[in-house]
Structure formats: C-alpha cells, structure tokens
Amino acid sequence: MADDTKSRTAHLDLDTPESQIETYMHRRAAPAREEETYLDANELVLNMGPQHPSTHGVLRVILKLDGEKVLGTECIIGYLHRGVEKIAENRTYTMFNPYVDRMDYVAAVSNGLGYCEAVEKLLNIEAPPRAQYIRVILAELNRLASHMLWLGTHALDIGAITPLFYTFRDREEILKIFEKYCGARLTTHAFRIGGCQYETYEGFEQDVIKFCKFVRPKIDEYETLLTTNRIWVERTRGVGVISAADAIDFGVTGPVLRASGVKWDLRKAQPYAAYKNFEFDIPIGQNGDTYDRYIVRIAEMHQSLRIIEQAVGAIPEGPIMGKVPKVMKPPVGEIYHSIEAPKGELGYFIVSDGSTQPYRVRVRPPSFVNLQALDKMVRGALVADVVAVIGTIDIVLGEVDR
Amino acid sequence: MQQFLNYLNSTQTPGETGNFAWATIYILIIFGGISVAVIAMNWLERKVLAHMQVRLGPMRVGPHGLLQPIADALKLLIKEDIMPAEADRLMFWMAPVIVVITAFTVFIVIPFGPTHAVTDMNIGVLFMLGVSSLGVLGIIMAGWASNSHYPLLGALRSSSQMVSYEIAMGMAVISAILMTTLTADGAGTLSMIQIVQAQDKQQMWFLFRMFPFGFLAFFIFAIAMVAETNRAPFDLPEAESELVAGFHTEYSGFRWSLFFLAEYAAMLAVSSIAVTLWMGGWMRPFSHWLAGDTWDAFFSFFPAATFFLLFVVALAGTVRMPKHAAFKIQKAGLGAFALVLGGIGVLLLIPPVKDRIQDIYWFVAKVSVFMYAYIWYRGTFPRYRFDQLMKLGWKVMIPVGIAVLIVVAAAPAFNFVW
User: Fold this and answer.
1) What is the domain-level CATH number for residue A192?
2) Cα–Cα distance measured from residue B389 to residue B395, given in angstroms and rounded to the nearest whole number
C-alpha cells in the first residue's frame, strides 16, 4: 500500500521547498526521486478538481495536507487547452479575432480590444476617436461584468450564496447592452481591426447612463452584504497574503497586484485606446490579502462607472472604422501590446512574416500568470483558504489554458 | 379496549401510564408528522431562499413547485444505490441508519402539549442531550466507511465541531434547568414537561428570566444548535465549495435521502428543545399577562386563522395564475389545495378540535420561527473557517456559557432573583 501511494504521487514532489519548485513538465520527465516524495502517515494528498465545485472550471489542484493545514499545492492545468495560439498561425489576422473572445470568456470585449490594438500597432494604423470611445465604454462595461461575476463566485466559494444572484441580476443589464450593440452577449466579437464594426444603436448613450445610475446602489448593496460582515472579514482578512515584492517577482498584475499596494494600472501607465482622456483613480490596497483584493475590485467597479460616464458624455462624432487594407499583410516584424484586462495585464505578442497570417501569436494571459502565486499564498493556510484564494485570484480557465 | 379509550381523558403521557398502544400511535404520529414537516421544510427552504435571492425557485412541478419535494423524493428512491467498491460495506450501510434513528429518537421526550409526548422521562434533558450527540457517530462512520478523502475530512470536521459545541450547548441547558428551581418549593426538574410547567408556574418564559442571562443562555443554545445540525454558517462538514459534499459525498439515492431526512429532523429536534427550554413549549404567548377567558378565546382562534390566511394566499395565487390554457391543471390543483387549507381551517373551528389543537399549534408555531431563521442564516452568512469555528466555540461560547451558568446558579443563593 505504501509503495503504491509513493508511486502514484511520485511525480508530485510536494515536499520540495518552494524555492526549488520546478515546473510540472520538468518533473514528469525526470525519474521519480524516492526520498523527496516520502509521505508521512499524518499527511494526506487530496486531489481537488478538475471536477470540483469551486475550482472555477477545470483547474486541478493537488494539495498536500496535514489535517486541514496545507503543506503544499500543485496546480495542474491544461484541461481546457484548445491551442488558441496555434490556431492563430493558420488564420488570417481578421479570422483570428473571434477566437480571442473564447479565452477569457467573461471579459471577451477586453480580449478583443487587446488583439485589435496589437494588430493595429503592427499595421501602424489607428482607430478613429469615436471607435476609441466606444471601445472604452464597452471594455469598462465588460470590466464591471467580469468583476460582478468574480464577486458572486468568490462569495459563493466562501459560503455566501446570495451575492451570486444579485451580481448575476445586474450583470444581465450589461449583457443586454452588449446584445443590443452587437447581437452577442458573451463572446461579443465587438471590435474589428481598425475600429468597430457597428455604429452604436439608437439610445445607446441613454442605456449606458441609465445602467450607471442603476448599478451604483446595487454595488452598495453587495457591500452591505459583505464588507462589514464579521464572518466575511474573518474569512478574508489576512488570508492569501502576498507582499508587493513577491507579487512583482511572480509577475502578478491587475487587482491582485494593486491590492498589495503597487499602483500599477496599464490604463494610466501606458494609456491605450482613449484612456488618457479620462479622469479616474487607481484604487490600491495595503495588506495584499483577500479582503484588500475584494475592496480594490469593488472600488474599481466605481472607477469604471466614472470612466463610462465621462466617455458617454464626451463621445465624439465621426467614422468608426479607420483606413484598413482589404488584405492585411503587416510588415515583417514583431509587436507586444498589452492592455489592462479586468484580471490584469493581457498582452499579445505577434510576429509577422509579412504574410496574411501571423507567424506566431503569444498571449500573456493575466489569469495564467496570477495563478502561479497560488502556492505562495496558501502554504500554511487551511483547506477553506485554498478555495478563497482561488476565487480571489479571479482565474478563468479558458484563459489559463487557452 | 376500555383502557385504550380511557386514555383520552388522562392527564399523563402514554409512556408514564404504560399504555403501549397509545405510545405506539404517538410514535407513528410523530414519525409521520416529522416526515411531512421535512417535506414541507424542503419546499419552504427552496422557495424562501429563492425569493431572498431574487429568483423564483421551483415553479414547474405542481403550482409554485408544491409537488417538487415529492418528485425529488421519488427520484431519490428510484435512483441507483451506489456503494463504492472500496467502502466498508457494513459501516456504510449502518451510518445513515444511525443518523436517522438518533435524529428521530429525540422526539420521544419532546412535549407538544401537557400530555402530547410519547413519554415524560424524569431525565428527559439528559436523554435528549445523549441521544442527539450520538448522531455524530453515524457521521464519523459515514466519513470513514466511504474510504475517500473528502468524506473523511468532512467527518473529522463534523466530529470536532459537534463535540465542541455540545459543551456550550450543555452549559446553556444547565442554566435553563437551574431556572426551574426558582419556584416556591425550589424543586428543580430534568423532565421536559415539568420544565415547561415550571415556566408556567413562574409566569415567565426562561428566555426573559433573570434578563439578560436567560436570553444569553438561549442565544448560546441558538448558535450551538446551528453548529450541531451542520447548517450554514457552520456547514463546514458538508461545505460544498470546499469538500464537495463532505461526509455524504459518496452517498446517493435512498441512503443520501436518509441523511437529508436526518438533517432536517435534527433541525426540528433542536428547535423543539430550544422552544421547550426557553420559549415556554406549548404555552401560548402572554398566557399570564393577557390572561382571562376573553383572551383565551381570542388566542384559540389563531390556528384556524393561520389556515384561513394560507387559504387566502393560495386563493390569491390561483386567481393570479396566467389565463393561458397550459395552466389549467396547475390552477385547478392550487385551487384544490386552497380548499383543503380552508377546510382544515374550518375543522379547527370545531370546539373539541379547537381546544385540543392549541398546545400543538403554539409549539409548532414557535418551532417554525426557528426553521425560518435557519433558512435566513443560509441566505445571509458566509461560511466560517474551521479554526474560526473552533475559536468561536471554545473561546467565546463556552466562557460565556460558564459565566451565565455561574450567575444563574449563584444569584438565587443570595436571594437575588429577577
């Protein structure tokens, strides 16, 4: 029995100190090392996922436990791998556009925005101002939708079931606006290289303003359920702490990084689209714990509303499509363009060989990079904290696995 | 036969008189009643929780999903009964049985009225505490026998949680028992019926006795009983987002439904105990403050009024149902249900029935308040973490429980009672 356990978990190396952690692929190739995989009688290896209610899809986490205490984790990803990057090499630039929506499917608009801007940069064209504004409005609406979904599922992980239904009720209004704008609710494919495909519909501005007025009290409503809730605070404060230095070392971006106290937001740091025209703050946390990440995201929802209201008020007239060649053949070269997606820095690295199809597309998905910090954040914590931290990192497996 | 009928005029429980025929009938009535209550609770929980969460809940099976619990029960009964290959077969089989038996056995000593209990043990409270803590045995067996990690973790959580909270619960219960000595003769009791009678004699529910200490003891019990029954926010043993389904992860079909039945029966049991010990059991509210025949007559209309209210609600639902032909059967069903409710209301106006139903009505009404609170907690609170739960149990509830116990025990010694 003991030998059996050993051989079954030999590739996991759960005893390795975190400084020496190698990648999963490395480990699989290397022969099993006996002494390092020794399982003490008090220790338990628990396989969490890929079928588990709170691993947000198909993440598989292997936990080594001492009772309830987590001694180590091992993330195994790839259950949702669809080879998006490889597909890109066999599609023209335009054809690949809808595929990026399927990566982070709860923030499809941001994915599309990043890709379109990257290709525009490669082609050396720019979308007209009106298109830029529409992009900002939709991207920020999508940020709200993404954060709402995060809040609902995160609260559900911690055991509060009600916020989920409140956030889904309000997210529905955003999806309705998307549906009216481009016909799709989730994988919107809202933008095209060089601008937008569709002009805003009649009453778009009123809808968006009405939504902003509608959703502000709703965000406060979520807060009344959670922010000062004793159990919520106890469950999140001091849980999954990551220091600013560690966060930067891991390459963590987005709200997770900002909650650690680093004021880094690509919308301010390297303004893209029309973001330089708007006034907004970057909310940051101090402790880098789950509670701060919650506070930061809630504050970001308010900031998004601020941006949306400014953008809708100042939306310029004009064309929505720039001058784009019928057949896109970007000059030979490579480009890296990144945007602030709801989950962090979403980067596209595109290599062009001068043909109609990219030679290589590499996506830097925020979820994938942020997920690395999971082990750092949960070591020494309890099983219940693992699900809280998976929730707070805000991963979408479609984006992690691509 | 004569003895059998004579019992109807008895002032004792069948257990005390040794009337086994009536005791069996009482047991069957309680078993049936609890099962119906569990079914009703299942529907209510889903509907109430749904409305708290801006959704409708079951709407398809029967009007407003009224037949949903029955459909669910049927589904569970005809499901394949899976036993994991590596499970300990005997233990796996016994676990749900033990859980159900302990959950139902507690009801033997619970008085629904002065004579409406199976028996009146002179150690009723000890019996209740002892039997209800046996339930944890079944849960540990379930977790261990499943031979799987999640159930094992769930069972471990469950056992430590139930054992810790039983202490706080015991402290609170002892405070209530001490309060029974605050009568003229100073005779305390452990009998559930006499505890209620002591509250009657002292003309005050123990909830308000020695305020706020009676209330504190009740409060501790009310929290501990949620933990004891593994319900939100203390539902760690079956924490869905962490342990999939905790100790009953490997259970399915009928065995699973036994756990479900036991959970709700246990909720009813602990709520009944709280009602008995602190909220005057079968006594109607203000039975001393608003005494007199007029008030008695007024309060005696409550059972019928409740059913008439339900009748009106159901009737309103029938009227508001869409006109579409597809709703014809549902409409008829809801209308018939409304009529049944109205019929029960009329039945409750008949004097002999009206007089005999009083105790049971007030008891059930008080228990329903707790059952609603259970649903409310579930819709409101996030889940405690294991260490926080233990901290709350050992560092807050038990010290407060001991403090209350000391005050309640010491104050009468100094003739200082309020």
Assistant:
1) 1.10.645.10
2) 10
pLDDT at A4 over 70: no
Chain A positions in Cβ-Cβ contact with residue B381 (cut-off 8 Å) = 159-160, 229, 231
B381 and A160 in contact by Cβ < 8 A?
A: yes
pLDDT value of residue A349: 92
**Domain final residue pick, B25, B53, B78:** B78
Which of A166, A229, A382 lies closest to B382 in CB terms? A229
Cβ atoms of B137 and B76 closer than 8 Å = no
Rounded (to 5) percent helix, strand, coil in chain A: 50, 15, 35
Q: How close A156 comes to chain B (CA, Å)?
A: 7
Exposure string (b/e) for B310-334, b if CB count within 10 Å is 16 or more? bbeebbebbeebeeeeeeeebbebb
Residues B158 and B146 in one domain: yes
Confidence (pLDDT) at B399? 92
Chain B residues near residue A238 by CB distance under 8 angstroms: none
Q: Can you give the residue range of the structural domain that contains B71?
A: 40-78
Per CB-CB distance under 8 Å, the chain A contacts of B385 are 234-235, 382, 384-385
Do B156 and A67 make contact, defined as CB atoms within 8 angstroms?
yes
Structure ipTM: 0.82
Per residue in B115-155, pLDDT (tens digit) is 777 888 888 888 888 888 888 888 888 888 888 888 888 88
**Nearest-angstrom CA–CA distance, A83 and A24:** 19
Within 10 angstroms of residue A345's Cβ, the number of other Cβ atoms is 24
Q: Is A47 on the interface with B (CB under 8 A)?
A: yes
